[in-house]
């Protein structure tokens, strides 16, 4: 009876370790190498997309703003843990009336909070989004 209890305890411990390790892997940057995506609506008719994925020890961040109108000038920012990492201006282009920006940021230990802010200079329309990676 004692060996059976030891075997049951060992199985329970192994299961707990496996489940705990899987939880840590999933929490560590989107499940161990996969990309994380979010998208949403802006304050007007435009839409935003934000994608983050691992890239050679860093994080590749891609932002897309789609207003469906070409020729609009947008100011944009990429935020990392609450601080502006990159900023600039982009003009939406034909045929889709969108623009995208790709930048790399340092992969900090633990969870990284990546955000985007964009504002249309003519209309004042704003886009905001974030994700944890």
Describe the structure.
The protein is α+β, with helices and mostly antiparallel strands. The chain has helices at residues 2-27, 29-32; strands spanning 36-41, 47-55, 58-66, 73-80, 83-91, 98-106, 113-120, 126-132. The chain has a four-stranded antiparallel beta sheet with strand order 1-2-3-6, with no helix packed on it. Strands 5-4-7-8 form a four-stranded antiparallel beta sheet, with no helix packed on it. Strand 2 (47-55) and strand 3 form a beta hairpin. 22% of the residues are buried.
Features:
four-stranded antiparallel sheet; 133 residues; elongated; alpha+beta
In short:
This protein is α+β, with helices and mostly antiparallel strands and 133 residues long.
Count of helical stretches: 2
Q: Which whole number gives the mean pLDDT?
A: 83
Uncertain segments are: 1-31
Q: Give the biggest beta sheet.
A: 4 strands, antiparallel
Percent strand: over 45%
Please tell me what the overall shape is. elongated
Classify the helix fraction into a percent range: 10-25%
CA-CA gap between termini? 47 Å
How do the SSEs run, as a string of H and E?
HHEEEEEEEE
Radius of gyration: 21 Å
Number of strands: 8
Helix/strand/pairing category: alpha+beta
Arrangement of strands in the largest sheet: 1-2-3-6
